[in-house]
Design brief:
Distance between the termini: 79 Å
CATH superfamily: DD-peptidase/beta-lactamase superfamily
Radius of gyration: 29 Å
Strand content: 15-25%
Helix content: 40-55%
CATH architecture: 3-Layer(aba) Sandwich
Number of strands: 11
Number of helices: 12
Number of domains: 1
Length: 377
Amino acid sequence: MASLSHRPLLARACLTENRLLKRSWANKVIVMMKILICLTVCFFLSTGTNAQDLKADLDTLVNGFYNRQQFSGSILVARKGTVLLHKAVGYRNVEQKLWNDTNTVHQIASITKTFTAQLVLKLHEKGKLNINDPLNRYFPDYPNGEKIRLTHLLSHTSGIFDYTKDTLFMNHEIRHPSTRGQLLALFRNKPLLFEPGSKYSYCSSGYVLLGLIIEKVTGLSYDRAIRKHITRPLRMHATGFDFKNSRNPKKATGYVDFPKEGSQAAPIVDATASFSAGSMFSTTPDLYRYCRALNQYQLVKQSLQQQAQTPVFRFGYGWVIDQIGGKKRIFHDGGIDGATCIVNRIPDDEICIIILNNYESPFIYEMSRAIIDLLHQ
């Protein structure tokens, strides 16, 4: 009977112990949640700090090139859809004391070739042409036209003489209007440098031919075809042709040397002379739209874009392909009187680096490499 009298007390003791255990576990859960929240906050604070540090480092790097008179222009650096740096330095017009800004319009020279190549790929996809077609399908009387394919023109493996190596033309005629026939005459009857497809030799003539083929199959002028199929759909409204006659108030004056007091403006190459090999101008925001469209396969389907980004003697269709830091880099540079430029893409890391310089600086390559190294740290 005595033992029975203690049962309620024992039950109360057990209940109290259970409550204490539950409270203990609840407290542990609360503590763990607080720790987790603290760690999460610390992580994001650390990430934010790292991102700020990276932006500061990029800014310092660009300022260093500017202070050493190695860069004057506009630059954009982005990774995984986030713009890490977008700035401009230096004069866009020394005489008028106008500074470059992030919407300054620059000549992009041979980066034009990437647009030519992309439109050829798009027309291939639409069935308007075939990149494996021989050249004589479009130019029946072209010498050795049965041997040269559009893929050879795209990858600089055609063996055709490069008209930009004609010193008389480059020294005296390039700043004056040229007809399509005059451009063709500079290389059409020159002997092939090698058997098509057997070697690589950079050739602007091949891209002149591609521009003419674009005009033949679309029924449009080259510039209207690019606008219709690429720049207008991508809202690249500041991108255009014929820099010499452009009235855009944001247009950068080109200089041979670093723009400063007393600098002389460089003469401008006529757009008809550079044509589909180098006549375009653009801005960093527009070229970033272009890079994102390429990375997201908005212009042509993925399989065709990847074929274009497979190197043939280090050059794909319109782009140079190499390795940097163990990652594939896809890039193209440009150089013309008064301007140098480069667009770098590293697809694996979704990196895009656009450098537009309004003087003839050779430091765009060193600058690109320094930025890529910084992003890979």
